[in-house]
Amino acid sequence: MAHLGTSIYTPIEVNFRCKGGPHYPREAFNLVKIVAFRPNSVFAFMRADQSFHRIEPIEDAAVARNILAYYIRIKGLTFERPPVGHPAATGAAEQPAY
Questions:
Q1: Chain center to CA of 77
Q2: Domain count of the chain?
Q3: Is the pTM for the entire model greater than 0.70?
Q4: What is the pLDDT of residues 38-50, one digit of tens each?
C-alpha cells in the first residue's frame, strides 16, 4: 500500500506561486517524492505558496484509502519562499526553516 501515499510536487514554472485556491493540472508540476502510505501513521507539512501535493488516483477498485485530514490555519502566519534570483533564494540572506 506504500504506493497510495501523498505525492509532493514543485511547479515547472519556477516562480509560480499560489496563495490558495483551485486545483491545477498535474502536467504543470514535477513529481519530487511520494511519501509512502503506512497504516496508523501521519504525514504533515506546512502550507506555503510553493508547496503542492496530491493523492494519485487509485486504479484498483478493491482498494480504499481511508484518511483523516486536518487543516490548521494560524491567523496572520504565512510561509513564502522568495522568488528565484532573490538574495534569500540563493542563501545570501537568512531564510526561515521550512
A1: 18
A2: 1
A3: no
A4: 888 888 887 788 8
